[in-house]
Every structure is written in structure tokens, then in C-alpha cells.
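Long-time lurker, first post. I've been practising inverse folding by hand and with some scripts of my own, and I keep getting stuck on stretches where the C-alpha cells seem ambiguous. Below is the full C-alpha cell string for one chain I'm working on. Before anyone asks, I'm not after the true native sequence, just a reasonable design that respects the backbone. If someone could post their per-position residues I'd love to compare against what I wrote down in my notebook.
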């Protein structure tokens, strides 16, 4: 099928959301193409994006296992630099949160600890402003928050992986099953092998419950599949490209009202 306005609408929806929940993406594809073959549509879009070194990647949330579509560069920056409407101080806080998540034994950091990090920043950032900033990072899928704890968000995993590899090489772990880097997973009490929660659930469907590495029986954490922090719904999956463009413009206008300087990671 030739690349069309419908393909552009899907692409613009992903760009607008930052991380588009797969259920929303499937709704959009069904309305626009009268079928649910999302793999075909993403493949056709990615063929157009390839010369631009961009792609739409499907990635699981490490906490819920839910899939998201993320628009990202295929050439990742080792320094994780990007233009943002957030201040250098806010981005310094985010770097510190990343560091605490990756180097902690639990692969998460408490919200209280995150706010206390404000005292270590070179420039002043109130705890109120820090909390609002971190909540926005959750809304944008850079972080995930559950029960007062911050975990790595799907956008961070997709877009900043090379930065994490170069900065925290000795701290990153590999999933026993998919062999990809992970930040949060289920750890075997016997052999210390670590596995994505969603990989382990898929594995358990066809195998006896236990560690994929040593078969030691272990009780997996009962994580809810409901995601209260999922990406914003596309209000009407049949909306046109112009409508999505207007939504993006409105969002950009709201961003510009924040009186922050551009910053980089």
C-alpha cells in the first residue's frame, strides 16, 4: 500500500503523544485503514522514516508490560542531549533520579528521596516545583510512578538507552529471556538471574513457574496490569491530520508559557 495521509495521521499521533499506547494505536489503524494489521502499517511508516534515521519502536513498560509506540532516532546520542523547554536545574534533577534508579538495588527511587535531591543541585529548585516537574515527566512517559516510587519510563528506555549504556555500563543488567537491557525485573533468589516481568509472564504460559535460568521456583511480584499513567488517549481515532496538528500546536503554546530556558541532558 502506498504511503498516504492516513499513514501521516498515525505518525503525527505518535509524535504528539510521545509514547502512544498500543491499544490507542490499534484503534487509530482500524478507523483509518479498516483493518488491525498494525505491524504492516508501522513497517510502511518506518520505511519512509529510515532515510531520516528515525523510526517508530514498540516497547514494553517494564512495570505493566503494556506496549507503547515511540517515535525515536535510530542514531542515539551518547550524551543524551536534546533541546527542551525545561531548565538546566530540572534536567539535572532528572539525571540524578536516573542515576538513583539505575544504581539502586530495587531499581526504583522513592518520591521523598527524589525531592530531597533538590538540596544537592547547584541552582535552587523548590520541592513544589520539583514535584510538578517529576509529575510531568511521568505524564510524558519519561518516568513511571507507582505507590510513591519512580521507575524508568518507556521513553527513557527507548530514547536514552545508549546514554545509559555509556554512563552506567557496569550497573545495567540483561534480561534472562529476551537478552535486552532492563532496569526493573524479577530477580531469582537462588541464581540472581533477572528477567523482565512481562517476559517471565509470557514464559510461564508455556513452562512451569520458575526461574528460566535455574528453574528455581519463585513467587513473582503481583504487579497490576492497569496503568494509571498511560499516554493521553487520542480523543477520536478518526480525527484528521489537521486536528492532530492543532492539538500539537495547542500543547506547544502551553509549553511556551512556562518561563524556563532551553536545556540539555
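-- Answer (accepted) --
I ran through it position by position. Result:
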Amino acid at each position: 500500500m502506498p504511503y498516504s495521509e492516513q499513514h501521516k495521521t498515525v505518525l503525527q499521533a505518535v509524535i504528539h503523544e510521545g509514547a502512544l499506547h498500543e491499544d490507542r494505536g490499534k484503534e487509530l489503524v482500524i478507523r483509518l485503514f479498516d483493518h488491525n494489521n498494525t505491524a504492516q502499517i508501522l513497517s510502511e511508516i518506518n520505511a519512509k522514516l529510515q532515510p531520516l534515521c528515525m523510526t517508530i519502536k514498540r516497547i514494553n513498560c517494564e512495570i505493566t508490560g503494556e506496549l507503547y509506540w515511540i517515535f525515536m532516532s535510530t542514531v542515539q546520542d551518547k550524551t543524551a542531549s536534546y533541546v527542551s523547554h525545561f531548565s538546566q536545574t530540572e534536567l539535572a534533577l532528572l539525571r540524578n533520579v536516573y542515576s538513583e534508579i539505575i544504581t539502586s538495588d530495587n531499581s526504583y527511587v522513592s518520591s521523598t528521596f527524589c525531592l530531597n535531591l533538590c538540596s544537592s543541585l547547584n541552582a535552587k529548585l523548590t520541592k513544589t516545583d520539583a514535584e510538578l516537574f517529576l509529575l510531568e515527566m511521568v505524564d510524558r512517559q519519561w518516568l513511571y510512578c507507582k505507590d510513591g516510587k519512580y521507575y524508568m519510563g518507556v521513553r527513557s528506555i527507548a530514547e536514552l538507552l545508549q546514554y545509559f549504556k555509556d554512563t552506567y555500563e557496569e550497573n545495567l543488567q540483561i534480561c534472562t529471556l529476551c537478552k535486552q537491557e532492563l532496569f526493573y525485573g524479577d530477580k531469582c533468589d537462588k541464581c540472581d538471574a533477572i528477567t523482565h516481568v512481562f517476559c517471565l509472564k509470557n514464559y510461564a504460559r508455556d513452562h512451569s513457574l520458575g526461574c528460566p535460568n535455574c528453574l528455581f521456583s519463585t513467587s513473582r511480584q503481583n504487579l497490576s496490569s492497569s496503568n494509571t499513567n498511560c499516554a493521553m488517549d487520542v480523543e477520536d481515532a478518526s480525527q484528521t491530520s489537521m486536528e492532530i496538528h492543532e492539538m500539537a500546536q495547542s500543547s506547544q503554546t502551553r509549553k511556551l508559557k512556562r518561563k524556563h530556558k532551553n536545556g540539555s541532558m
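A couple of notes from the structure itself: Residues 88 and 263 are 5 Å apart (CA to CA). The chain has a mean pLDDT of 82. Happy to go over any region you disagree with.
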